[in-house]
Amino acid sequence: MRRLILKGILSTAVIGSTLVAGLAFTGTAAAQGYPNKAITYIIPFNAGGESDVSARFQQMVFKKIAGVDAVIQYMAGAGGAQAWSQLNSMHGDGYTIMGINLPHTVLQPMQKDVGYKTDELTPVNYFHYTPDAIFVHKDSAFKTLKDLIDHAKKNPGMVTFSGSGSNSSNNLAQVRFDELAGIKTTYVPFSGTGPAVTAILGKQTVAGFNYAPSAITHGDKMRMLAVASEKRMPAFPDVPTFRELGFDLVGGAYRGLSVPNSTPEDLRHKVSDIISKINAEPDFKKKMEDGGFVLTDITYKDMPKFMADKKKEYAALAEKLGIKKQ
Amino acid sequence: MEVLGYFAAALTPFNLALALAGVILGTIIGALLGLSATMAVAVLVPFTFAMAPASGLIALGAIYTGAIYGGAFAAILVNTPGTPSSIATTFDGYPMAKRGDGGLAVTLATIASVCGGLIGAVSLILLAPPLANVALAFGPTEYFWLAVFGLTLISALSVGNTVKGLIGACLGLLLSAIGVAVVGGDVRYTLNSQMLLGGIDITSALIGLYCVPVIIDLVATKAPHLKVIEVEQGIRFFEALRLSMTRKFNLLRSSVIGTAVGILPGAGGSIAGLIAYSEARRTSKHPERFGTGEPDGVIATESANNATVGGGFIPTLVLGIPGTPPDAIILGALLVQGIKIGPTLFNDQADIVYTFMFGLLIATILMLPIGLILGRYAYKFIIRVPKSLLVPTVAFLTILGSFAIHSNPSDMQMMFVLGVLAWILERYGFAPSPIVLGLVLGQIAEQGFVQSYLIGNAQDAIIEMFFGRPLSMAIIAFALLTLFYPLFTSLRRRRRKAPPSEATDLVVKADKATLENYRDVPAIIFGALFIGLGVLAYMETRDLSPMGAVFPKTLSVALVLFSVMLIAFQIGRPAARKKQADPAAVKPSNIRRFATIVIMALWVALLPMVGFFVTSLAAFFCLTAVASFARPSARTIFTYMIVATAIVGTFQVLMANVLLLRMPAGLLF
Description:
The structure holds 2 protein chains of 2 kinds.
Chain A: H1 2-27, E1 39-43, H2 50-66, E2 70-74, H3 81-84, E3 96-102, H4 104-111, E4 122-137, H5 145-154, E5 160-164, H6 169-181, E6 186-190, H7 193-201, E7 207-211, H8 214-218, E8 222-227, E9 252-259, H9 265-280, H10 282-290, E10 294-298, H11 303-321
Parallel strand pairs in A: 1-2, 1-3, 5-6, 5-7
Antiparallel strand pairs in A: 3-9, 4-7, 4-8, 4-9, 4-10
Chain B: H1 2-10, H2 13-31, H3 37-48, H4 53-78, H5 87-137, H6 140-151, H7 153-157, H8 162-176, E1 179-180, E2 187-188, H9 202-218, H10 237-246, H11 248-263, H12 269-283, H13 295-319, H14 325-336, H15 345-348, H16 350-384, H17 387-404, H18 409-427, H19 432-458, H20 462-467, H21 470-496, H22 521-540, H23 546-571, H24 590-610, H25 612-626, H26 634-658
Antiparallel strand pairs in B: 1-2
Helix pairs in contact in B: 1-16, 2-4, 2-16, 3-4, 3-14, 4-5, 4-13, 4-16, 5-10, 5-11, 5-13, 5-16, 6-19, 6-21, 8-19, 8-23, 9-17, 9-18, 9-19, 9-24, 11-12, 11-13, 12-13, 17-18, 17-25, 17-26, 18-24, 22-23, 24-25, 25-26
């Protein structure tokens, strides 16, 4: 019994001192010499999604660029709103950064009180986007975008597009495409990119509005008819852009990094710089481009203009989607 | 043989060590409430970047299969599924444990899990490419009918109490509609609170609905948690083996169901377990024993859910479509490592794929000795540990588990609220299982329905969409069979006047309370409450889009209808006579129950503000006091305090420093 008690005391002491040491460590954060300890990188979604995969790519070169590790944590819930609504209550010491997404952070607060407003968040760098793209099954009769549009014109409403979620970038793209091409199609929301792609592969829907990276994994079974990037993507040199085909559709899901609003200006710039430098890293760049991501370099300096443009664009589409403006 | 070469590659000491460590870690994580396979796999991913791809995959696969299996421990020993996959394990596993067969149940679960896991893994090795097409054959309509099929299990789960079961299912289905809808994007039933925006997390709801009532009732009496048979029986391996051998057909059928359901990307272990359970019950000679501790129930669920591991890897590796959430993470890890998924994977990178598959096979086999050893300790711990430590430990695990899912204190608060509601409802005959079934199947049913409707409507073929597809028809047929088969057999039995077959190899005593045919006044009151709830739920759908409204509208109408039926049945019965109190029964202590509820309420309310460690330690001490029935000596108190600090401290370190979860930023820590 005595030995047991002794053991208990010992283990308590060890645990206790570990805790104290841990606390002391967090206390030494200083703005100068930033960064000098691991940075916590919060993903507002579950593991395994595109936000996670791109963060994992960053994590692999993070140490080389920033000199410290990035520790990835997940805080999923309410399509990201759970995490974003808590962002500003976190420490603004530069050691907490959080993934931020568009159009989510513009559309969510428009629709309902989700605990944050678009302008309350502080994005410091949008580093890539996954362009929207139209896919059909490889056996499909539609070889080009024109084939699909002609069919849709003759059969209003009959063309079904699978896509990831309602009021998502896929959904916005479908609404905008209908408008630009003068057609009427049916959007069928699925609970994520995976099920939406499965619906195309299983021929449940006529076509799909999905994100370009899907073509990397499923390229042999699906045909990408057009992609909403500015230029043709290096990974898919044969796929035309919507612009080439005469439709002004550029966009997708944008991913970036944000910080709590208490983070000082100089640290915001520093975080933005780290992300930009990672973007310039050749190995990272190649992996991302091979994966179907389009790198962007929207730094903290460019942010006000970028956000103003995006907000205007989404607001116009949101009205068509029936999202009430509050 | 090339394939044998891959087998040898999987057998390197390093890979074996990884598989062993993975299974041990996975089993422990799975056994702890709320800590799921998904979380374990996510934490491990960065470590695998430093390994060869095949070794990394083996570690991930081993942890995954271990975690699915570990869920059975909690299901059997504390009536709480450690992961959603083992929901149906609680139906018979816990009754078995209660009557003293806990060791046997754990061993049965181990044997069944290994069998299921092996069949899943062998299917993966031999048949992956052709089987992957099953994933594509399932469209929204099939998922809708699959969910309906799952719901038919309610009729079996609530025999003699069907209306209450149906009401429970409606409640569960309505709960599943809370939050932002995937289809339509409507925000539903959030009562303008951010807490409900993300919807109700299924795992935290499971913990609350199943475990909180157990905790509350545990403190009420001095009686031990599980009945302990005087003679030391241990894990009863050979008895379990014999039982499994005589039930080999069930084992095989359930494993095949598990593999098939695992292939479907939208389904997963929970549905596989439920369907296998339902089929085992339908084909059993003693369906009435299910739910009272029938070994077949445990065998069916546990073999099916472990078979989903191998099954889930089939679409993941062949098509790049993750079969289950942990598969999604593993797929992400593969992408980061630069491995291209698809049919070419099996040719171009056959060494990686086959080494991994054999690694999974080996990990599954390792589960047998590890499971038996860990199971033995888990069972001994549960029956030996004094109640004054068991109650706070289990309560602590519910708090920790529900918090850990998303590092979100509101999940924990939701868990507690649902748990107290479930405790109240259970006292009046509304069992938690139909609610859970509704909650788990609700989203699948709704998404499948709305998607089918949209596609059918676009094609002008709504009826054909729902009833014209061969696969759908097959599922509908199975659902009808499950629903009406018991009726059919009892009719036939009555005609033949054959006596119902008696117990064969294991004495299973139906422990059901005799049905009282008197008026149940609380049921009438609850009926009235639910009518009100249904009306409110209906009114809330007014502002929703048609897509978002159809499901909750239908359910609120159903809830009102079933509640009216409940009241009508009860009013027709004669008024109850005064119940004769059994003088021998020990009067349960309501003060202790109440104190437990208050302590847990304060715990979940204060934790985000004060901090995880301090609040939990304080609550732990308080619950120890509530669950102590004799005045402990100073030495015992001292030991308890040290044990409490050690348990809470260990988990604090585990969560913050190993699993790297975000801990609440409270005033203290």
